[in-house]
Amino acid sequence: MDIRAVNALTYEEFVELFGNVVEKCPIISAAIWSNRPFKDLTDIEAHITEFIDSLSDSGKEGILRCHPDLAGRDLQSGTLTRESREEQGQAGMTALDSAEILLMHRLNSEYRERFGFPFVICARLNNKADIMRRLSERLENDCAAERELAIEEVKKICSLRLHNIVLSDIQTKL
């Protein structure tokens, strides 16, 4: 999909297409739609980043709370978004053995109890060993530092999802 096609989308079409680039936060796509016409994909990403950065700490934590636990209840029950299911699968989080599942459950619980939101990491840029190691390490952070780290991970996820939407369409036409 080229930028002209993106700019031609109606509000509803835009929110439908880009509504999950930030997990379960279609309000972000809704908020940036009025910035059309976008110059390019980088411009869309910049508007999303600007929106996220302008939020209060509680607003940022709200974004983080929309994310599922890695290898958690939503994965087990099949209620993950398509994007999260693919990303967790790519990182190996859908193929954990019973000991790894127990470890992830314990670490996710400790993390959520400590920070009040789920652990967020860009699964597509990590494998299961990296994810478990980083989850353990990040439990040592203070809340402010962890919130900012998690928001940076949200931005990485968003960027990859944006590229997947726009570039995948371009690549199918080549």
Overall number of strands: 0
Give the C-level CATH assignment of the largest domain.
Mainly Alpha
Uncertain residue segments? 169-174
CATH architecture assignment name of the largest domain:
Orthogonal Bundle
Q: Tell me the name of the CATH homologous superfamily of the largest domain.
A: Oxo-4-hydroxy-4-carboxy-5-ureidoimidazoline decarboxylase
Please give the alpha-carbon distance between the first and last residues.
Answer: 12 Å
The total count of helices amounts to 10
Net shape: globular
Structural class comes to: mainly alpha
Radius of gyration: 17 Å
Query: Overall pLDDT, averaged?
Result: 95
Number of domains: 2
CATH fold naming of the largest domain: UraD-like
Q: How much helix is in the residues?
A: 55-70%
Q: What are the secondary-structure elements, in order, as H or E?
A: HHHHHHHHHH
Strand proportion: under 5%
Major sheet attributes: none
Explain what this protein looks like in three dimensions.
- Residues 169-174 have low confidence and may be disordered.
- This protein folds into 2 domains: 3-62 and 167-173, Oxo-4-hydroxy-4-carboxy-5-ureidoimidazoline decarboxylase (UraD-like), CATH 1.10.3330; 69-161, UraD-like, CATH 1.10.3330.10.
- It is built from 10 helices and no strands.
- The protein is mainly α.
